[in-house]
Amino acid sequence: MFEVSDIVAYGVNGVCTVTDITTKRIDKVNVEYYVLSPKAAVTAKVLVPTHNEKLVGKMRAVLTKDEVTEFLDNIPKDKPEWISNKNIRFETFKTIISEGKTDELLKLIRTLRLHERYQFRRGKRLHMADERFLKEAEKMVLGEFAYVLDTTTDDVLNQILN
After folding, report:
1. pLDDT per position as a tens digit, 68-78
2. Would the pTM of this model clear 0.70, i.e. be above it?
3. What are residue 32's DSSP bridge partners?
């Protein structure tokens, strides 16, 4: 159970503060919610029903500095394999995003950023769906890493790519 003022990571919303635990009446039933305030969107509020195990399961304490450092130190430095079949690639990327495993998200970011560079050198861009996957993965990882390391998301991205 989370408490008010806890700092959590919550899916694509990234790092959030639990600002309140409130009850709302919906269809004559009282429902308790965590009220989350994403660090990246100061005016936004996210309501997570406390009884919904699937949604609450997406909330977790932010990583420690040691855990972030370990993730960054263990990113494979070899050139990632590009999946040329777009249907298989999209399904693979969708699974990585939905599972939200940090190590897989880091590999996805690295893969897409390196492919983006390759495409740029050829005078092309990433496929629109690949861009969407990249932005989601970056929202899930970079903000949390930057928060924990007290740095910028650009610095974190440079560490992932270099």
Report:
1. 999 999 988 88
2. yes
3. 23
**Which among 99, 114, 105 is positioned nearest to 143, based on CA atoms?**
105
Query: At 96, which helix (H) or strand (E)?
Result: helix 86-99
- Which are the contacts of 74, defined by CB distance < 8 A and separation ≥ 6? 103
Other Cβ atoms within 10 Å of 25 Cβ, number = 8
More confidently predicted of 32 and 40 = 32
Numbers of helices and strands, H then E, in the chain: 6, 5
pLDDT of residue 131: 96
Residue 27 Rama label (left phi>0; alpha psi -120 to 50; beta)? left
Taking CA 110 as the corner, what is the angle to CA 119 and CA 162, rounded to the nearest 5 degrees? 100
Mean of pLDDT over the chain: 93
Q: How many residues does the chain have?
A: 162
> Which domains are delineated in the chain?
7-61 (2.40.10), 65-161 (1.20.58.1290)
In the three-class reduction of DSSP (H, G, I as helix; E, B as strand; rest coil), residue 95 is classed as helix
Contact 14, 42 (CB under 8 A): no
pLDDT of residue 40: 81
pLDDT tens across 37-63, in order? Answer: 998 887 889 999 999 999 999 899 999
Residue with tokens 């635990």: 21
